[in-house]
Each structure stands twice: as C-alpha cells, then as structure tokens.
Amino acid sequence: MGKNCTLGELLIDQLARTVEDDTLVFHGFGSPLVQIALHVAKRVYTPNLVLVAGATYGVNPDPPFIAPTTNDWVHDRNSECHLSIGELFDLSASGRLGRMFLSGLQIDRWGNTNVTQLGRKTLKLKLPGGGGACNLSCNAKNITLWTAAHRSEPVKGKRRYRIVSQCDYVTGFGHKNADGITRRQLGYLGNGPQCLVTDLGVFDFDQDGHLRLNVLYPHTTVDDVLENTEFEPRMKKEVKTVSLPSLEVLSIIRKLDPLRIHEKELSPGDRSLTLEEPKNAAIC
Amino acid sequence: MSSREPMALIRSIIRNRVNGLTVVGSAHGIDIDLLCGANAVSASQESYVGFEQDFGMAHNYRRGCESGEIEIQDNCCYTLVQQLRASIQGLPFMPIQSVRGTDFEKNHPSYKTIQSPYSGEDILVVPPLTPDVAIIHAQYADLHGNLRIEGPPVVDLLFAQASRTVLATVEKIVTNEELKRLGGANIPYFYVSYIAEAPMGAHPTACYPFYAYDREHTELYMSAAKEGSTAFKKKYLKDFVYECESHEEYLHRIGGEDTRVRLSSWKESTDAWMELYKEST
C-alpha cells in the first residue's frame, strides 16, 4: 500500500491505543506526543473520552494547532468547559481519573519514574521536577508510561540509561519501590503502570509488576532493547511487530501539528526516520 | 510556565536586591529561573521549574540547586493544593491520598502518617502553607483592588486566599462597572494588598488576550543562561533588569511598540498565531 510514517507518528498512535472509551483522561505539560495522542484517541478510537488538557484544564478542547508550550491559550480553544487544578486532582484522589500518562528521565523495572534528580546520595543533576506526577501516579486508575529516549547512545564510553534497574529518586510510584513496598500495601486506588511506550517498542508489566517487552517496531530489534536497557527486561513469548497508524490517524496528526512540536521529544536522529509497513504486522 | 507570570514584579524584586527567598508554586519556568540567576533564592518548593520540551532545563535553577546555594524542597501539585487548603480553612493539617511510598515522603519530615479514626487505615497528612507574599499578574483590576484573571487561573486563586500579603500587577486598571462588564472579579479586593498597572507585565510569558508568549526573547534568555551564571548576568540581567530603572525602560529595551504589535498579532489569524512560534533557523 506504500503507507509510511515517522517514528513520532507511530508513537502517537501507540499511545492513543492505550486509552479506554468513556473514561476521563488527563495529560501533563511538556508532553506533546501524549497531547496529540489524546486528540487522535478522541477522534478515532474512543469518542466518549473526557479529555482534560494539561495546564489549561480545558475539557474536550479543539486546538487549531499545537504550540511549543502547554499552557498556551491555543490549547484550550473550543473547550466545552474548564476544571480547576484542585478539581482535577480531587478527581484523581477519589479514583475518578481513568488514565494518566507519565514519563521520566529514569523509568525503572517496576515502573517507578524519576523527574526530580539524578544521583542517589549526592546530587549529580537536578531535573525540573514532577509537577503532580507523584500524586497522580498513586491514584489514577491506569497509567501509561512513555519515553522517546529509550535509545541511549554512549557519551565518552558511558551510557546514561533511560530505562534503569532502580530510579535514583522515586517521583512517581510504580508497582513497588526499592524497599519492596507495593501499592496494594499502601492502599492506593490505582492499578499502576499498565504499559510503557518507548522509541524502541511497547512493554507491559507482568503479574509481578515487572517490565516485559511486548512488541517491537519495523526498525527495532530485541538486541536494540537489550543494549539500551540497564537490566534485562522480561519478554512476551512471541514478540511481534506493530502495524503503522492508519491514513486517518496520520492525517489528523499532520493537520493538528504543522509545527511538528511533538518531534522535540525525539532525538534528532529519530526525527528523520521514515518507517514502512512491515509484513506480518500485529495490531496491538 | 509560559503564561501570565508576574515578570515585572520579579524584575523589580531583583532590582531592589531582595534575596534569601523561599519560593513555592506549582509548575514554573522563566520566573523562578530569573530569580535564581540573580541569586535571590535560597530554597525552592516548586513542583517543576523548566521550559518543557521547548527549551528544556532551567539552567540558573539547576546550577543553584547543584551548587547547594538553593535548598531543594520539591513539592507536588496536589500536595501544594492541600497545604494551601489547610491554611485557607484554618485547619492544622490536611490528609492526602498519595505521596506515601515515593521519595517525597522521605524528603519532607513535616509530612506525617496518622491512622484514620474511622477506618483505622494509614493516611498521610501535610501541614498548612501560609506564604508571606503571593505575587500575581492578572489582566484587569478595578481601583478597589478586585482582580480579574482571564483564562486558567491555575493556583493563583488559592495563593491569593492563603497568603498574608498579595501583590498584583495588571495589564489594565478599569472601573468596577467595566470589570463587571468584562465578566467580573475572581479574586475579591480584600485579599489583595497592593495593585499596580504594568502593561506587558508578564513579558516574555503570555498574557492573553493582550499578547502571546515571546518565544524569540525567551530564546535569547536561554542562550545567555546556558553559558553560565557570569555570562547570564552580563548578557541578560544587566541589560534587561539591572539597567532598567523602570518597567517603561524594560519595554523600550525589548523593542517597544513593535514588539507589542508583533505579540498581539496572534488574534489576526491561526497563521499569524503560528508564525510567532516558528523556529528561527
């Protein structure tokens, strides 16, 4: 069919497919891949989604384009109504936020995320901070994790992994922390991270709450995943390759994001990738 | 972040050589980073300080934290909301259904776990937060001090209710009649201690409907901040803060009327709006 797309477009489609219909979802700031994914989900997969925009708290907005910063008035244009910051977090605390999307400069094997600092005992790098990630990670019903920087090229022979064995700091709670405390023990309402979408593939979490490779992309291999992950992730029995987004999805993305803001989440090398539909693609 | 930050107030705070500040807020960017670049901050309880995917890390803030000049006391959005609510409601603490199990619990000895007297379950409680001063930039005020914020107020309403002193700058001071015509106040005057009219007082962040985010100026700011703290003082603070004796002088230095016209062009069309955000290559 000759359909092809960019890696950013593939990631958006994969993120959009993690949403259930008739649920309330929220995206944070600084996450255009997710922001666009929710618009795709609402228009194609899950029309009854209650889409709450990050930073502006607009409900079901229809922005004319995607701007470089999240709390721009562009993003809440044509919203049906607005929530306040307290109201959105209240909804999450009482178990009424269906899904949240979280990322991190470190994401570990149990789905904990770190956006606070690198360095466990001594501070090596102060990261910007997590906004409300800590709060939402505990009580959002389901969580999709994502990162477009799984591939970690060595700098001066040393690799700074994005997907790590253990986070230096737990900003967002996964399935259990380094002390072995689980979310069930803490009585949290949320089910925790359900999947992780990266630039190399899509993962889920097994019965133990451990990261497990589920599917790859047309251009990635199991070896890419092993090489770029600090630990050895578990594997699904059969790791398939995803199919590319439909032409409808691609046209929505291209119309909504003419400035290609979502590509800023990708590494410069990944921005120019063109992917082609693989044979034997799996729908995931 | 890129919208309605009280930048004219912050520049004035820096010019008046105020320092040793503890800053607290939800998600912020250039406002906190500018204060850090002027060595005015000694502790940070922000939930986020950065420039999102647009420009990434806040260099002055990061350097201050890493050198030990700024004590890191990161907060989270909802924890902050609950702390402000405790203060607003006159309560000794507020329970919160999250945080336990994360490292915020370990790093904040003031958070305590208690047992619910009803279910017996463990629950985290956080202390009230009563800031000495809240600084806010709004679109409109009337002469009595009633404030009208247009668009998302984020945490400003809670900060106004919880703080001992509220300082506000506005784009325009109007009569109470006119304020009502515009849709009415959302922060009543008795919370507000002082107001001043400062057109473009949020620049380089946006204050719609008056003007959009000045991405071009922010880029200039970032390139100076990236070079290091001395370069930042020489290449940015000197020109745009220390040497500007007044807000009018600042407006002149950022390009005066031409800049105002450029940033208000967003309303002409979607294309004009997008034009403001194109990468300068």
Kindly list the characteristics that best describe this protein:
heterodimer; A: 284 residues; alpha/beta; Glutaconate Coenzyme A-transferase; three-stranded mixed beta sheet; 8 helices; B: 281 residues; four-stranded mixed beta sheet; 39% helix; globular
Question: Helix fraction of chain A?
Answer: 10-25%
- Measured as a percent range, the helix fraction of chain B is 25-40%
CATH architecture of chain A: 3-Layer(aba) Sandwich
Main pleated sheet of chain A = 8 strands, mixed
CA distance, first residue to last residue of chain A: 20 Å
The count of domains of chain A is: 1
The secondary structure category of chain A is alpha/beta
Number of helices of chain B: 13
Order of helices and strands of chain A: EHEHEEEHEEEEEHEEHEEEHEHHE
The whole-number mean of residue pLDDT values of chain A reads: 95
Number of strands of chain B: 11
**CATH class of chain A, anyone?**
Alpha Beta
Give Rg of chain B in angstroms: 20 Å
Percent in strands of chain B: 15-25%
Give the SSE string of chain B: HEHEHEHEHEHEEEEHEHEHHHHH
Strand order of the largest sheet of chain A: 3-2-6-11-13-14-15-16
Question: What does the largest sheet of chain B look like?
Answer: 4 strands, mixed
User: What general form of chain A does the structure show?
Assistant: globular
Q: Could you explain the architecture of this structure?
A:
The complex is a heterodimer of chains A (284) and B (281). Chain A has helices at 7-16, 32-45, 85-93, 133-139, 183-186, 222-227, 247-256, 268-271; strands spanning 4-6, 24-26, 50-52, 58-59, 81-82, 99-102, 106-108, 113-114, 117-118, 125-126, 142-147, 163-164, 193-198, 201-205, 211-216, 234-241, 274-276. In chain A, strands 3-2-6-11-13-14-15-16 form an 8-stranded mixed β-sheet, with helices on both faces. Chain A has a 3-stranded mixed β-sheet with strand order 8-7-12, with no helix packed on it. The relative contact order of chain A is 0.18. Chain A has a single domain (4-269), classed as Glutaconate Coenzyme A-transferase (3-Layer(aba) Sandwich), CATH 3.40.1080.10. In chain A, strand 7 (106-108) and strand 8 (113-114) form a beta hairpin. Chain A is an alpha/beta fold and 284 residues long. The mean pLDDT of chain A is 95. Chain B is an alpha/beta fold. Chain B has a domain at 77-126. In chain B, 39% of the residues lie in helices and 22% in strands. Chain B has 13 helices and 11 strands. Chain B has helices spanning 7-15, 30-37, 52-55, 59-67, 77-88, 103-107, 156-162, 176-181, 215-227, 229-242, 247-253, 256-264, 270-275, and strands at 21-28, 41-51, 56-57, 71-72, 94-96, 112-115, 122-126, 133-142, 147-148, 165-174, 194-197. The model of chain B has no long low-confidence stretch (mean pLDDT 97). The interface between A and B is large, with 62 and 58 residues.
